[in-house]
Design goal:
six-stranded mixed β-sheet
Length: 342
Amino acid sequence: MASNTKHIVILGAGVTGLQTAISFLTSPETQKYKITIVAEHMPGDLAAEYTSPWAGGHWRSHATLAPEDKLPREFDERTYRSWIKILTEGDNLAPQNETPSERTKRIGLGFSPALDFWGSETPETARDGSGLWWTKPGLIRDLKLLNQDELQAENAPKTSKAVFGVSYESININVPQYLVYLLNRATALGATLLKRKVNTSTGLPGVIQNLKSLINTPVFAVINCSGLAARHFVEKDEAEKLYPIRGQTILVKGEAARTVTLIHNPSTPPPKSSTLFLVPAPAPPFSAAGGPRVEVEGRVEGAWVVHSYGHAGAGYQNSVGCAEKVVGLVGELEEKGERARL
């Protein structure tokens, strides 16, 4: 390894960590970096604390038009566009003459018609679609705002009278397969995997020391993609924002013809959630008060630390956009170092 090659260590091999490695290795500005992924669990493992394999679902943005959701909106949009591109154009791992069906099975992503219904009036139910950020022209494929006749024709859930609906082309995720795909792509691009349990008992400085001892080479930056495990070593005020949440994923025989979501059923409002029914159903592993934490902490034990966790049930649909944000943050750190040397 050349002496001027930056070494980036990614802590965690869930969807966030794996996609971050891929984004580093495919960005012209950072593909020269040495990337090492350190994690106790890798795709194929089914440990309870390894949350990525237990998720399930499809692309449907949770972000609102609120100013505090600016980053999640950007993450969701970038991920949707990236998934569309990879499903339509393929990637560097595609065998010759691969069919769309074969690509879907290999990657673990597939196009799916989606219907979203609202059971009561909310800021999102403006009839012209202006309450939903993702109805802007040119983003979502096959987007259609449904009137009352169309809602009935689409068999809106009978548990409540739907007041608003949207149909569009979503992307379903075969989570175990997609994680294996990300792992294979990351290693094909040059990422190194190190399956180790990192000691978190002495806080963030101890984690960085442990990682540096495992790598045994100078580390420019550590990307914390450890998910809920971050609460064991980040500062107290940040740890208190992280909490586990429970969901269920039910596997049934056959393929659903489409994905149907009922939002805001006024008769039985669920606690701490705005979605009542979702088919297929996601199982978000944890959440972070205030949304995802994607930021530079500073230097710790001689290495820059960048956090990327707290995505809750939006981890997959945030993944590409969030990873590219992290790449940009690290690029800024490198530029800062270059300016300091001049």
